[in-house]
Every structure is written in structure tokens, then in C-alpha cells.
Amino acid sequence: MKAFLKRKDIEISWRRYGIDAMGAMAQGLFCSLLIGTIINTVGTQLGIGFLTRPVAEIAGERYTVGGLASAMSGPAMAVAIGYALRCPPLVLFSLVTVGLASNALGGAGGPLAVLFVAVVAAELGKAVSKETKIDILVTPLITIGTGIALSAWWAPPIGKAASAVGYVIMWATEAQPFIMGIVVSVVVGIALTLPISSAAICAALGLTGLAGGAALAGCCANMVGFAVLSFPENRWGGLISQGIGTSMLQMGNIVKKPVIWLPAIIASAITGPIATCVFKLEQNGAALASGMGTCGLVGPIGVYSGWTADIASGAKAAITGFDWLGLVLISVVLPAVLCYGLGIVFRRMGWIGGDDLKLD
Questions:
Q1: Of 20, 152, 175, 193, whose CB has the highest number of CB atoms within 10 Å?
Q2: Residue 160 and residue 55: Cα distance in Å, rounded?
Q3: pLDDT digits (tens, 9 = 90+) for 197-215
Q4: Is 346 helix (H, G, I), strand (E, B) or coil?
């Protein structure tokens, strides 16, 4: 069995499923749902007719360009997972159907359902791939058949469970904004820097509202925090790669010396409750954006798209100067100032020094 699994490149491990597959899933979600949301927002705000007019009608449903991109989130996630699991072509292409089914049947918790179902379907597809002379029939049938069956069986309860957990977190944040602001901000910020996907976690749990704002605060505290904290060592290249890229680049240095993570964690514990209690910062765009921070400015764009959606629905009257002040302070200014100040203290205490924050 070990020899067979090795030959088929089936590796049952936390890294393969919890890091590689989940990280790829977030990319698939980004390239579909989030990009679709951004396209719709740009089209609406700039009055671009081509982006606001329906361009296709499918089964009576009319779609804009952004709407088409968002509608493909299930297939995009499943194919991304298959790519991360190194699936052969027939398995990879068959996952399109699997992703569509599991995301649709998973409801609000669709992304988590896609993760579980696509992983199993992909590995079973890999197991039978090229094992028969009629591979072109057997591999798609096994992959799609297994995926559809598991979607019908697993996706609804997985979706309900994920939705329930996300609801509890959002309810708790509304009830206890100070405490939960700290908890959500710190936990999601840590997840962003770890080699797992904070974006996928937020998407799977559907974290929006105040909880989404706290998650955004934690992610920004880590990304902008490390970018500013390590500026003496990494200069402008490090500022951009971490501030707009990812703080995950520091993971190797954190493993060597965990104390260097404290300034970013402390900053997230401070900005989280400020976001929830002072500015009432809500992230009502795509839940994925809650876990993206300043990566490609996706987090702030998510907040803005949520504002525009709330205005369109009548839930919000207008975007105020106080809204913009809160977004800028939470996303950039406070993380930069806090980590800069904490960095000075830590360096004087000898907790950070030398090349502790140097990127290769």
C-alpha cells in the first residue's frame, strides 16, 4: 500500500491537505469570487457600462462579467485544490463538476465543503488514473461520481456546521466586541503568517461584519507590522513584499526566534478592539477579504465593496469621513506606528537584533 500511494503521489499529511490544498483553495476563491466582486465594484463606482450590464443569461439567470467570475467559485476552488494535489489532467478537469456541486450544496459553508469533497475525490481519481485501458472513461467517472455522491452526503452538514461556527463568532463579536476583537484579530493574524490560509478560514466560516473587521485588523497588523519592523534589514523591497505580499515570508525567522513575532501579535491585540469598539469597522464584502489583510489591498477593497453593497441595499446611508479614517488607521497607520515603536523597544532590550528579521 505504501508503494502504491507513493507511486500515485498520494500523501496523507497535514501539510498536503491543511496547507497546500487549503492555500490553493484560497487562490481559487480569490480568482473567482473576490475578483468578481472587485469587477462589480469598479464597474458600479466608475459607471463602466460593460461591467454593469448583463453579458450572459444561463437558466434564466442574468450575469455580469463579475457575476460570471463569482459564479465559478466552486469549480475554481476544486481545480485549484486538484492542482495543489498534483492531479493528472483527467482528474483535474473532472473536479470542475465536483466543485460546482459541493459549493452549491454546501450553502454558506460551501468553501469548506469543497475542500473536504475535492480532496477525497481528487485522491480517489489519482488512485485509479491510468490503471485501466479505458482510463478516459474510468477516471472521470470515479472522480465525478465520488465527488457528486460525497457532495450530496457531506456538503449540507459541513456547510451548516461551518455556517453555525461563523455565526457564533460573529454573534460573540457583536455581544463582546472588546474581548472578541482581541481574540479574532490575534488568531486570524497568526493564521495569516503561518503557512496556512487565513483567507480560506475566513471564507469557510463566512466571517463578515464586526468579526470580519477584527480579522482584517489582525491580518494588517502582521503584514504592515512585519514590513515596518524589518525595514532596517530589508529596506524597500521587504516593505513591499511583506506589506502588499505576505508576512509568511518571515516564517523561517520566526521558527528560529519566535520572540520577533510579539510586536505584530501585540499590535493585532490593540488594533482588533479599536476596530470593533471605536470605529465599528465592518467587513461586509466577500468573507475571503477578511483574511487577506493588505495583500494586494484586497482587505481594504473588501471593506469598500461592503460599504457600496450596504448603500445599495439601504443598510448604510453613505460613506463618511469617519469610515475612511477608521479603515486607514486600522489597515496601515496603527500597525505601522505600533510595530515601529515596539521594534525600538525590542531592539534596545536585545530581543531583536542582527539579522533576526532579514529575508533571504
A1: 193
A2: 33
A3: 798 899 989 999 999 999 9
A4: helix
